[in-house]
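<tokenise_the_fold>
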Amino acid sequence: METTLIKKIELKNGLTLEFIDVSRKVAGDRYLVALKTRVSVPVAPRWFAGDEPDIPDPGDIIAKVGSTVEFEQKKERVFVDESEKPVVLENMMALAEDYGVRYIGHPDFPKKLILKEYNADI
């Protein structure tokens, strides 16, 4: 599967949101239009306030989940005509960007994602 990095945006919380086209032809002039959004969150003390007693030590978090936590989402539309593919992909990107700015760009997103990953096997 061929992937193409379309765009990157810097979010207010310091993360970089990537938009990746992972579309593919399925039959004749029909496509599966797919957009993957991805953000890498470094596990760092800056995401945690010093006055939170129930938060594990960053060293313990890194030991369990690694130095980076990845967040990805994928949106798909099936059986899209080749002539409609650019418009469909552009609409998907607009929605994903709006969502990314509001949700992934929220100041608490990195901390919550890291803790979710840390607590996943408990």
Remarks:
- The chain has a mean pLDDT of 94.
- The longest helix spans residues 85-104.
- The radius of gyration is 18 Å.
